[in-house]
From TrEMBL:
<comment type="similarity">
    <text>Belongs to the WhiB family.</text>
</comment>
<dbReference type="GO" id="GO:0005737">
    <property type="term" value="C:cytoplasm"/>
</dbReference>
<dbReference type="GO" id="GO:0003677">
    <property type="term" value="F:DNA binding"/>
</dbReference>
<keyword id="KW-0004">4Fe-4S</keyword>
<feature type="domain" description="4Fe-4S Wbl-type">
    <location>
        <begin position="24"/>
        <end position="83"/>
    </location>
</feature>
<dbReference type="GO" id="GO:0046872">
    <property type="term" value="F:metal ion binding"/>
</dbReference>
<dbReference type="GO" id="GO:0045892">
    <property type="term" value="P:negative regulation of DNA-templated transcription"/>
</dbReference>
<keyword id="KW-0408">Iron</keyword>
<keyword id="KW-1015">Disulfide bond</keyword>
<dbReference type="InterPro" id="IPR034768">
    <property type="entry name" value="4FE4S_WBL"/>
</dbReference>
<keyword id="KW-0479">Metal-binding</keyword>
<keyword id="KW-0411">Iron-sulfur</keyword>
<keyword id="KW-0805">Transcription regulation</keyword>
<dbReference type="InterPro" id="IPR003482">
    <property type="entry name" value="Whib"/>
</dbReference>
<keyword id="KW-0804">Transcription</keyword>
<dbReference type="GO" id="GO:0045454">
    <property type="term" value="P:cell redox homeostasis"/>
</dbReference>
<keyword id="KW-0238">DNA-binding</keyword>
Amino acid sequence: MTPAAVLAGRPAAAKGSHWAQRSACHTTNADDFFEPGPAAQARAREICLTCPVRVACLTDRAAGGIAETEGMVGGLDQAQRRVLKVAELIGERPDLERAEQLLSPSWRYRLHKLRNGGHAPRRMAEILTGEGLTVDAITVRVALWWVGGSGKALARRASRDRRPLWQRLRDDHADEILRLRGSGARHIDVAEYLGVHVGTSTRAVQSLEVAA
C-alpha cells in the first residue's frame, strides 16, 4: 500500500481524497515512507518536495488529528505538525499557498539567504513582507521545514551573545511564551513550539511568570 492510499483511507481524508491519485508518493511503498529515523524522513521529504498536491495533503489532514499521525504528511514530520497544533492556540495558522510561493524560483534563493543569515522566522517574515511577499513566522517555518531546515523559532546565537539559552528565550520570545501560557499551553507545548528542550523553556517561562 502507498502512503497516499494509507492517508486517503483514514476517516479524516476519505472525503475529497482525489488528491491522492496525483500525489508524488502514489507509487511509493508506505513502509518506506512511514519508517522512523532521519534517513527515512529525508527520503520522504524529498518526495514531498516534488509533490503537486503537498498543500492538499496537509490541508486534508489538518482537521483529523494530523499532529498524531505518524510518518511524513504533506512534507512535515510528526514533531513539526505538533508545532502547528500548538501554534493554533495563539491563532497562528500557516498560509500554505504562500509557503509554496517561498519555494518558487523567485523567492527560494531569498529564503535560503535569510536562513543562512541566522535570522529567526519572525524576523525573516518581517523582511520578506517588506520586500513584497506578505508572510508570517509560522508560514516561513513551514517553508523551511519543507526544504529540510530546522525551522526553530529562535535566531542563531550571535558570536558575542553570552546569554544562556533560557535567557535568550525569556528576552527574545516573551510575547509568544506568555501568549501560549495564557492560552493554556503546557510546558511541553511551549518547548515544542520554540524547538528547545522542555527544561530550558520551563526556566524561561518561570522567570517570566514570576516577573509578571
